[in-house]
């Protein structure tokens, strides 16, 4: 059984552990209560009594066991990734079946709540897993700039990105500013999607088509990059946004094309990610692609847009459909959230560019900028 404790920042481990304890108490404690007192509890909440009591006891027992599993995750000094995978599968199955029964008939809100709860915790366990199996990403997100590869530095950099709504583009202009300040010559290559599907603003139809394709990770067609494998850039900064908790299809298409992989081989590469709120999986996907291309990853920053949920999500939907921030006006100021990185995060990206321009040489220690992703 695999187990990890190193690499993940201790405060984040604490948050995940506390969340595991919460679901442990809810699953194990809640199901014991339901098994013992389901009649009065259901009568109080107006839930119809179970038609098949043995099946009800079976499902409660299953859910109780998942609570015990969550408690083991909370208590472990070496968190087991196998336990987390089991938890993700179990909670996803429960959640998906609840959704299925909800769609085919009446389902009391109590069961719907249980389904949503397990769906949310499947996601939390999933992020926990990414943390634990990616100690290298935690180092990068803690602000480290790693020594570059053994190769001559001509002080020229390439920015490679795709940006649908302009947020990533602005982010990259700030990285560029930092690199220019350190004497770098900077070129930009904007990834262009072939299909008219990827146009901003999005209609509902196109939004759902993109989302559907993102869920099933259907690749997008992009125009050839035209960057030779023997290019002169000593640094490449790759930027990507999140689409449905993963890499945006046109940016992933860069790596899906085998001919493009040589562009990154043996080169110093840094990553930037922008999103509404969820960047960890997108970042992990990008960096794993870069690892497969034998790139030398030297730095990574990922930033979310400002604001609070669920207003940020609603604001995103309105923005994607209308291309207007702060619309409708009467929702502005108290509900609608900005769809751009804050000034503070943009300033951090300038400093990221500066730090990349001065990244340590092979054999030198990594530098720690003290600016974390988030
Ligand atoms: C189709 C689609 C799906 C998205 N899904 C997510 C998501 O799952 N999580 C998230 O945090 N942001 C999500 N976003 C928000 C984008 O990551 C965010 O708006 C980002 O700033 C866009 O960058 P860009 O302007 O460079 O295209 C989604 C945006 C689109 C268009």
From TrEMBL:
Q: Which residues cross the membrane?
A: 12-36, 56-76, 83-103, 109-133
Q: Which SUPFAM superfamilies match?
A: Flavoproteins
Gene3D superfamilies noted in UniProt: 3.40.50.360
Recorded hits in InterPro entries, A to Z, give: Flavoprotein-like_sf
Domain of life of the native organism: Bacteria
**Signal peptide location in the record?**
none
Keywords noted in UniProt? Membrane, Transmembrane, Transmembrane helix
Name of the protein this chain belongs to: Flavodoxin-like domain-containing protein
Question: What taxonomic lineage is listed for the species of origin?
Answer: Bacteria, Pseudomonadati, Myxococcota, Polyangia, Polyangiales
């Amino acid at each position: 059984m695999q187990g990890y404790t190193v690499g993940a920042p201790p405060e984040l481990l604490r948050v995940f552990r506390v969340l595991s304890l919460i679901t442990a108490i809810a699953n194990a404690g809640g199901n014991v209560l339901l098994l013992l007192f389901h009649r009065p509890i259901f009568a109080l909440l107006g839930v119809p009594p179970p038609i098949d009591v043995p099946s009800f006891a079976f499902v409660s027992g299953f859910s109780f066991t998942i609570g015990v599993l969550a408690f083991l995750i909370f208590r472990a000094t070496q968190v087991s990734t196998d336990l987390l995978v089991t938890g993700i599968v179990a909670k996803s199955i429960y959640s998906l079946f609840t959704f299925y029964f909800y769609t085919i008939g009446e389902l009391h809100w109590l069961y719907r709540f249980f389904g949503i709860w397990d769906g949310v915790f499947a996601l939390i366990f999933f992020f926990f897993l990414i943390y634990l199996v990616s100690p290298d990403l935690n180092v990068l997100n803690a602000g480290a700039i790693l020594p570059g590869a053994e190769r001559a530095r001509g002080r020229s950099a390439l920015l490679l990105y795709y940006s649908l709504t302009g947020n990533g583009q602005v982010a990259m202009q700030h990285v560029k500013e930092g690199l220019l300040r350190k004497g770098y010559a900077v070129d930009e290559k904007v990834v262009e999607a072939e299909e008219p599907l990827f146009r901003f603003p999005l209609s509902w139809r196109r939004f759902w088509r993109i989302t559907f394709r993102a869920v099933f990770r259907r690749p997008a067609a992009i125009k050839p990059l035209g960057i030779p494998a023997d290019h002169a850039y000593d640094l490449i900064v790759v930027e990507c946004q999140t689409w449905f908790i993963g890499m945006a299809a046109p940016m992933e298409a860069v790596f899906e094309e085998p001919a493009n992989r040589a562009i990154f081989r043996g080169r110093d590469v840094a990553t930037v990610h922008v999103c509404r709120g969820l960047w960890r999986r997108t970042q992990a996907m990008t960096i794993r692609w870069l690892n497969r291309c034998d790139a030398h990853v030297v730095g990574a920053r990922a930033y979310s847009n400002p604001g609070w949920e669920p207003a940020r999500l609603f604001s995103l939907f309105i923005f994607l459909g209308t291309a207007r921030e702060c619309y409708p006006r009467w929702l502005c100021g108290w509900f609608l959230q900005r769809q751009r990185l804050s000034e503070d995060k943009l300033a951090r990206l300038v400093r990221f560019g500066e730090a990349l321009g001065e990244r340590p040489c092979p054999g030198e220690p990594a530098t720690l900028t003290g600016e974390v992703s988030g």
